[in-house]
Each structure stands twice: as structure tokens, then as C-alpha cells.
């Protein structure tokens, strides 16, 4: 049966969809470092979209970077919606306010913001709205949002590589925190650029893999390594292949 992301789906629905489409080929063909390299590649391509003022390039690559980050989350067996909500419970993770007052108060350490379950956003789109309220776009330029997103991409990778080498429980916790920060900044860039992430994901993932449209994905690794939205007039599917399961 074909699978898709619907615009009013939750972050948990999205994570589950990415698991069903990409974890089988991902587990077989990619190391964690390979996955991070892909996630970073698309993040950087999105940033190029900011520099060039090319919204299409920014949008598509941001969505793809987000989907690669779900492969990281799935590889770590994290529940990203839960992690994101605990770190950003409709409040800034550092100053504990909504909207954030970090620029004025400059908190020296992170306050553990109190969690009010009744405020938890039910859908992915509601999470994006929550981030626009905690961190209004008027407080930064799109370029600043992009720089912060790049920073978080690096910190996430650093946290994962630290854990891969030492396997300490606190390092595992740090990965979760960095993943939440990466996702928060993904929504931050989207909010600054006026990108509706839920709509974009529904357009890309209307039928299984965004490129081959198979479930699970059967895109050849060499195709993935060269995948570039700018070279595709449409999301041209690769040649039909038989999935080996
Ligand atoms: Zn703050
Ligand atoms: Zn595919």
C-alpha cells in the first residue's frame, strides 16, 4: 500500500513515514556518517538558496535536509516529537519565555521550562506555528536564521560523533537536545522564509519516496549521492526497480 504525508499530520506521523520509506535501504547502505553527510549536503544547498535569493532551492533542500534528519532520529531510535516538545514546551528552551527574551535577558544557562501538556501542538503545522510564536521572524533576518541552522547542523554532528566514540549516557542525551535544536532551527528558517513545511512535505511525499515513489525506497545509492533538485525540472522518478525485501 502506498504511503503519504498529509498536511495535517503530526511530527510522529512524519517520523514513522520516513521510517517506513527509508530505514530499510538506509540501514543496509548507509553508515551514520553517510547519513549525516547527506543531511549536511542538503542543508548547505538550502543555505545556497538563501544566498542566491532562490526560494525554490531553499524550500526543497530544507525539506530534504529535514527528511534526512529523520533518518538520523530513526537510527538513534528517538521519538523526535517528544524530545522537541520537552525542550520547547511552547516556551524558549533557554529563557523560558514565549516570545523568547534571550536577547534582553541573556540567560547564562538553560532554564528547564515547565511543561503544560494541554499546550502541546497536535500537528506538525502547529509545531511550526509554535516556533513562530516563541521565536518571531521579526527578531532576525533570513540569513541569521540560516547561520543559526548551520550552527545546529554542526553541533548535532559533533554530538553524534562524540557518542559514537565514547558511548556515554550523557552524550546520548546531548544528541537528543541537539536534534531538537536542529529541528527548531529548521522551522525557524522556514518561518523566516514563509515556507509551509507541512504543505511542502505533503507535496514531496504524496506517494512513498519523493524520487522513486517506492515503499521502501529503491533509489540506487549512486543516484542519491548525486541527487540535486536544481537539476530536476520535476521530481523525476528513477527507473522502476524491484525492491528486495
Ligand atoms: Zn529565549
Ligand atoms: Zn527512492
TrEMBL record:
PANTHER family: NUCLEOTIDE PYROPHOSPHOHYDROLASE, REGULATORY PROTEIN FOR BETA-LACTAMASE
Record-given protein name: NTP pyrophosphohydrolase MazG putative catalytic core domain-containing protein
Source species: candidate division Kazan bacterium RIFCSPLOWO2_01_FULL_48_13
Amino acid at each position: 500500500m502506498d504511503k503519504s504525508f498529509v498536511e495535517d499530520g503530526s511530527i510522529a506521523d512524519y517520523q514513522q513515514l520516513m521510517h517506513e520509506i527509508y530505514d530499510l535501504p538506509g540501514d543496509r547502505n548507509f553508515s551514520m556518517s553517510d547519513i549525516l553527510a547527506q543531511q549536511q549536503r542538503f542543508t548547505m544547498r538550502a543555505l545556497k538558496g538563501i544566498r542566491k535569493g532562490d526560494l525554490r532551492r531553499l524550500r526543497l533542500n530544507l525539506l530534504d535536509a529535514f527528511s534526512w534528519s529523520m533518518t538520523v532520529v530513526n537510527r538513534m531510535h528517538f521519538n523526535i516529537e517528544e524530545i522537541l516538545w520537552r525542550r520547547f514546551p511552547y516556551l524558549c528552551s533557554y529563557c523560558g519565555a514565549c516570545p523568547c527574551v534571550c536577547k534582553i535577558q541573556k540567560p547564562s544557562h538553560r532554564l528547564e521550562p515547565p511543561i503544560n501538556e494541554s499546550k502541546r501542538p497536535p500537528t506538525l503545522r502547529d509545531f511550526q506555528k509554535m516556533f513562530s510564536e516563541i521565536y518571531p521572524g521579526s527578531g532576525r533576518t533570513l540569513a541569521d536564521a540560516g547561520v543559526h541552522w548551520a550552527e545546529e547542523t554542526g553541533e548535532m554532528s559533533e554530538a553524534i560523533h562524540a557518542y559514537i566514540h565514547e558511548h556515554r549516557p550523557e552524550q546520548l542525551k546531548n544528541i537528543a537536545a541537539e536534534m531538537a535544536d536542529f529541528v527548531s532551527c529548521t522551522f525557524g528558517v522556514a518561518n523566516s522564509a514563509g515556507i509551509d513545511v507541512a504543505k511542502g512535505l505533503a507535496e514531496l511525499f504524496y506517494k512513498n519516496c519523493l524520487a522513486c515513489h517506492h515503499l521502501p525506497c529503491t533509489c540506487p545509492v549512486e543516484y542519491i549521492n548525486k541527487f540535486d533538485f536544481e537539476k530536476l525540472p520535476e521530481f523525476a522518478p528513477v527507473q522502476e526497480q524491484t525492491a528486495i525485501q
